[in-house]
Amino acid sequence: MSFTKITETPSHYNNLEDMDTLSILTNMNNEDKKVALSVEKVIPQITKLVDALAKRFSRGGRLFYIGAGTSGRLGILDASEIPPTFGMPHERVVGLIAGGDSAIRKAVENAEDQTKQAWKDLMEHQINENDVVVGIAASGTTPYVLGGLNDAKKHNILTAGITNNPGSPLAEMADIPIEINVGPEFVTGSTRMKSGTSQKLALNMISTALMIKIGRVKGNKMVNMQLSNNKLVDRGVRYIVEGLGVDYNTAEILLKKYGSVKAVLDAEGKV
Known about the structure:
The protein is an alpha/beta fold and about 270 residues long. Helices cover about 45% and strands about 10% of the residues. Strand 3 (about 130-135), helix 7 and strand 4 form a beta-alpha-beta unit. The longest helix is centred in the C-terminal third of the chain and has 20 residues, at about 195-215.
C-alpha cells in the first residue's frame, strides 16, 4: 500500500541554525497555530469513538492506549490523569508503551519493532470484548501498535487509531481512524512537535468527553476528583459553596463528613 508520509516531508523552513531566537520561536508558534484547526476536522471521528467508549464503559469496559516513544508517553500521561481528575480506578483507562515502564523516561532499543508484544501487554490486563484499544502512532506504521490492533481485532475488540499520516496502515486497520494532518514539522520528522501536540489535544477530548458522558462531571465541576492536596481540598470546598449556597466553613465540614464533593452534593443538594 502506498501513502504519503507527511510526517517525514521537509519543513517549510530551512537554515534553522541561522535564525535568531525570536524567529525560531515565532515560526514554531506559527506552525503550532495550525494544530487545533487540524484536530477540528476529525471531531466526527472522535465523536464516534467517545460514543462507542461510553456504551462499553457502562458494561464495565476499559480504554487502552498503546504507543511507542512520544505517542506511548502521551497515552500514559492521559491515562494517569484520569484517577486524580475524575476519581476513576486506575485500571479503567490504561496506557501501555513499547518497552514497558522503563521506556517512559528512556528509549528502549527496538521495542517499537516488536509486533507481538502489544498483545502480550494487553493480555496481562485480561482484555476482553467490552474494552477498546486506541493505537497512537504519528507515522501510522509502528509495528508495536499495528500488531496490537491486529490482534485486538482478531478477538472482536473495537479499535481506533490516532495518526498524523492519512491513509497509513494504522488508519486503514483501525475500526475508527482518527487521521490528523498537521503538515510537515518545523524540524523535519520531529513528531514530538505538532504531531505530538495534536495527539495530546485528541486524547484530552476523548477522555474528558468520555468522563462527562459517564457522569464523572456535574455541571462543569470535577466533583469526583481525588482530594490529594490542600489546593484540591480548597477547590472542593469552593465547589460545595457554589453548589449548595453555604458558607466556606460549612462546606468544609460537609466535605470532611462525606469525603467527596459528589457525595456532598448527592446527599445535601444539587449543583
